[in-house]
Write a structure and sequence with these properties.
Elements: H1 4-24, H2 33-51, H3 57-79, H4 92-115, H5 126-218, H6 224-253, E1 261-264, H7 265-275, H8 281-284, E2 285-289, E3 295-298, H9 300-316, E4 324-331, E5 334-340, H10 373-384, E6 387-392, E7 399-405, H11 416-423
Parallel strand pairs: 2-4
Antiparallel strand pairs: 1-3, 4-5, 5-7, 6-7
Helix pairs in contact: 1-2, 1-3, 2-3, 3-4, 4-5, 5-6, 6-10, 7-9, 9-10
């Protein structure tokens, strides 16, 4: 029983190596091979010793049969081998066949001698050990070469994939550059067309308004229905003119450069209210100011557009006989302005969306509008460093707008699209 433990170890290691090679080559392993080899060796070794301890031929033929089964299970996989490791068919496969032939042939020869009455107690012979060592070294070298070939193939495949990815990204980059150039051209043409349309609309609107005003002054004998008709015409002209101004303000919102100067906010608010006289601002707006003069460093054009849009909304979306409360006060060194109305209000769940381009609250369907007013307000407030909040109005009725402006505007930087166009 001296060689029993080494025989078990060899019987376990050979099928493990065979299964490892099969997995590496992408073939399913023979999971039954390891337990079969161990059980087979655990049975035949003591059985042959029990039959005749001095006879090594029986143990040799059993060991050769086990080697034939283990390596024979890998022969079909090596025979079908293709690709970068296909050359192993002509190296490893013949080596295994020659080794199995020598080992099993020698075992059969010893068995034939035993049948003739010649009993040899030796299990191994020096030349068979040398042959097995050479075969094992050859297999190991072939496996290393196979591993190298597999790694080279994987590296080439990965490099090809990376080259394809780089080419794909370069193609996408070219497409993106072309799309960006087309978008810039389209945007420039859009702005140019918008300015032309606005100019062409303003000119006839101004003529219609002045002609209607002259008719109101010279045709005093017109009946009340005629006078109301002339008033309606002027109101319509103002509405269309206001829409043009809103569209132009929205266009300038993304490209405006603030030009702050020291001005009196109370006086500017009075000018805005005069421009909203056609909406009854003179009688409906109730102004409360903590000081007769509230100087502030701010862009008058931007602040005028903000105040005009907020007051128009308050007057438009509240009953014609309800007041609009405006409060001006100091907020530290800045400005605090509130506008409270008793109109339809803004649903609480929609207040976060107010100020998005073309967004209108769900309860404004009966009122004409474009959804640009509060968008312009938010954009201009961002340029001026201010902020705006919407809450419920007095007695939970209407809307309360709270607007804050800092004492000094932030340092202006060109918007990203403008810088891109400047470098294009």
């Amino acid at each position: 029983m001296t060689g029993y433990v080494p025989a078990l170890l060899i019987s376990a290691s050979v099928p493990l190596c065979v299964n490892g090679v099969m997995v590496f080559l992408g073939a399913p392993p023979r999971r039954w091979l390891v337990p079969f080899s161990i059980i087979f060796t655990a049975i035949y070794w003591p059985a042959t010793l029990l039959i005749n301890p001095a006879d090594g031929a029986l143990r040799s033929i059993c060991a050769g049969s086990l080697g034939l089964i283990c390596f024979g299970s890998a022969l079909p996989v090596l025979w079908r081998l293709r690709g970068d490791c296909g050359w192993l068919r002509y190296t490893l496969l013949p080596a295994i066949i020659i080794h199995l032939g020598i080992q099993y042939g020698w075992s059969l020869y010893r068995l034939a001698l035993r049948l003739d009455g010649v009993i040899d107690p030796r299990m191994f012979f020096p030349w068979t050990v040398i042959e097995s060592a050479i075969a094992h070294h050859l297999w190991f070298i072939c496996f290393l070469a196979m591993l190298g070939a597999r790694l080279q193939h994987s590296l080439r495949q990965r490099n090809a994939e990376l080259a394809h990815e780089v080419e794909h990204r370069r193609h996408l980059e070219q497409q993106l550059a072309a799309t960006l150039a087309a978008e810039r051209q389209l945007h420039a043409e859009h702005r140019q067309l918008l300015h032309i349309v606005a100019h062409e609309i303003r000119t006839p609107l101004a003529g219609i308004d002045r002609a209607t005003e002259m008719l109101q002054l010279t045709c005093q004998e017109l009946p009340p229905t005629g006078q109301r008709r002339l008033t309606d015409i002027r109101d319509g002209v103002r509405r269309v003119g206001g829409l043009v101004e809103r569209v132009m303000d929205e266009e300038r919102a993304g490209h405006v450069r603030p030009r702050p100067e020291m001005l009196d906010v109370s006086a500017l608010l009075g000018t805005v209210l005069e421009g909203l006289a056609h909406m009854g601002a003179a009688t409906r707006v109730q102004l409360t100011a903590t000081s007769a003069s509230l100087p502030l460093m701010v862009d008058p054009a931007l602040l005028s557009a903000v105040l005009r849009n907020l007051l128009e909304n308050a007057l438009k979306y509240s009953p014609s006989d309800s007041p609009v409360l405006v409060t001006l006060a100091r907020d530290g060194n800045g400005l605090l302005l509130t506008i409270a109305d008793r109109g339809i209000g803004i649903p609480p769940l929609e207040r976060a969306s107010i100020g998005q381009r073309f967004y209108r609250a769900s309860n404004t369907n009966r009122q004409a509008g474009t959804g640009l007013g509060l968008f312009i307000v938010r954009r201009f407030l961002t340029e001026m460093g201010g902020d705006m909040r919407h809450d419920s109005g007095p007695d939970n009725c209407g809307t309360l707008v709270t607007l804050r402006l800092p004492p000094h505007p932030p340092v202006w930087t060109a918007p990203q699209p403008e810088r891109e166009l400047a470098h294009a």
